[in-house]
Specification:
Chains A, B: The chain crosses the membrane at residues 6-25. Chains A, B: This is Prephenate/arogenate dehydrogenase family protein. 2 copies of one chain form a homodimer. With 306 residues, chain A is α/β, with parallel strands linked by helices. Chain A has 2 domains: 6-177, Rossmann fold (3-Layer(aba) Sandwich); 181-290, 6-phosphogluconate dehydrogenase C-terminal fold. The first copy, chain A, contains 12 helices and 9 strands. In chain A, the strands form 2 sheets. A 6-stranded parallel sheet of chain A has the order 3-2-1-4-5-6, sandwiched between helices. In chain A, strands 7-8-9 form a 3-stranded mixed sheet, covered by helices on one side. Chain A starts with 5 loop residues before the first strand and ends in a 16-residue tail after the last helix.
């Protein structure tokens, strides 16, 4: 889990994921030097103040100079323009990767700008918190979480293997997946649930008959977990929905179909339908705990989140 | 936070809430003797084995004999029949209460059976976990959580004050609220979010193109929290939706209206609408943290739940 994997790594964009990558790389000594760049001068100043990156640069081009690995950690919608900007100065033999939540769109936006002799290995770490910005990162973010590599046709297996070693060194479990399948799986496990949580929190905020203070004061089980999800970075999520449009709309269609069936069961008083449905979903939870993706501690609705 | 409030308390139904009440009452010495009854012989045997209740009885009538406080801890749909059964043997001057998640229906089901000289003070502790059964309770469940008292017309203020003292002694903050308002607030903060989580987990389970194992394996941020919510007790939740039908259907109508607006924004690529919406919901999360209803720790999507 340690030993240098890349001589120089450049992080473009210095939010939650990039800052966690920096601390995770430092923890295991995975990179010789890590440079960083953020579009906002304020973010760059914060990064310098807290020692995030060995060197914070004032342009993306400066940051990627001589880098063996360049990781695009910007919102999905900004990946293309950033790649276009840095392409002319990339070192031959370098690898470009990213951490975007959507993969087909990132590949289509980045690949046309890829110079001859530069490898491209898209990636997506399935880890995050509802916080964002350069100060939100921590070395343990990827520990025992999945990081999915989505190599494109013609990607050098050696470049993929090296990036895998980096992610494993940062504590992650690594799998490889096709881009379209990735986008569908994530639409189910992450994108649609986020949209639904955002919607429910918005509805609560709109209701005039239930005052804000009551919704907040009594936000125990259920709603409170939704607000946590719905506190995630707005720019990142806007881009996710706009760039994984087809899969999200497909899953949303399935969701409303099922919701209407449950709504009809409530209206008609069909208790058996409801009970069967809720029994089935309870079993899925057990599978997730058995798969080691969450603990069985009864913290739901409790203040035990440390 | 201590001192005896009732001489004898009877708990009817021995699930998560009743068992937590028992341990919380013991912790603070709030009751002289606590009797208990559960319909299932297996539950009664478990209760006897783990020392849940000072005395486990084989009938509800036996358990409520000479009780100063009887708390109905059964699913909302079972409240009426249980009350009808125990009514003839209730002590004059006793108080009947409950812990149901819906209040208007419980009042309508229980009140007709209330004998002369017996007080009725409905209550609802906003606390729980996704676990159920007699072994799932713990003394701290209500600490710093809200318990809502919903006194009906003509309830003796003295009986209400005494029940308030019990809940405060068990660690809860107590508020009073009108039954219809309670049911609407809970439809927003708890009932509809639960239905939505159940639906989303069911959709994921149905999808044949995304194998079960993938949904489970990669269930990081978002979906995993939904599965926790969707693992709650099926019988309890069936009864909640059947008995808080009007408020749930009203909030569901609002929800689908908003969801369709966001769906249209995704389809038409209206990024500004999405970004504005997500920025607004993020602010609500901050209010909840400031109100002390959750911590700001970045555990979302992480395995840090203890």
């Amino acid at each position: 889990m340690s030993g240098q994997v890349y001589g120089r790594v450049a992080l473009i964009g210095l939010g939650l994921i990039a800052s966690s990558m920096f601390w995770a790389m430092k923890r295991a000594g995975l990179a010789g030097e890590v440079t960083g760049y953020a579009r906002s001068a304020e973010t760059r100043a914060t990064a310098r103040r807290i020692g995030l990156c060995d060197r914070v640069c004032d342009s993306a081009r400066e940051a990627v100079q001589d880098a063996d690995l360049v990781v695009l950690c910007v919102p999905v919608g900004a990946m293309g323009p950033v790649m276009e900007d840095i392409a002319p100065v990339l070192k031959t033999g370098a690898t470009v990767s990213d951490v975007g939540s959507v993969k087909r769109h990132v590949i289509e936006a980045v690949q046309p700008h890829l110079p001859e002799g530069v490898h491209f290995v898209p990636a997506h770490p399935l880890a995050g918190t509802e916080h964002s910005g350069p100060e939100s990162g921590f070395a343990e973010l990827f520990d025992n979480r999945w990081s999915l590599l989505v190599p494109v046709e013609g990607t050098d297996p050696e470049a993929t293997a090296r990036l895998r070693a980096l992610w494993e060194g940062m504590g992650a479990n690594v799998d490889e997946m096709d881009a379209d399948h990735h986008d569908l799986v994530l639409a189910v496990t992450s994108h649609t649930p986020h949209l639904i949580a955002y919607t429910m929190v918005g509805v609560a905020d709109d209701l005039r008959r239930v005052t804000d203070s009551e919704v907040i004061k009594y936000s125990a089980a259920g709603f409170r977990d939704f607000t946590r999800i719905a506190a995630s970075d707005p720019t990142m999520w806007r881009d996710v929905f706009l760039t994984n449009k087809d899969a999200t709309l497909e899953i949303l269609g399935r969701f409303t179909e099922e919701l209407f069936a449950l709504q009809r069961a409530i209206r008609t008083g069909d208790g058996a339908h409801l009970h069967d449905y809720f029994t089935r979903t309870r079993a899925i939870r057990r599978s997730i705990i058995e798969a080691g993706q969450d603990t069985d501690a009864p913290d739901f609705g409790r203040g035990q989140k440390k």
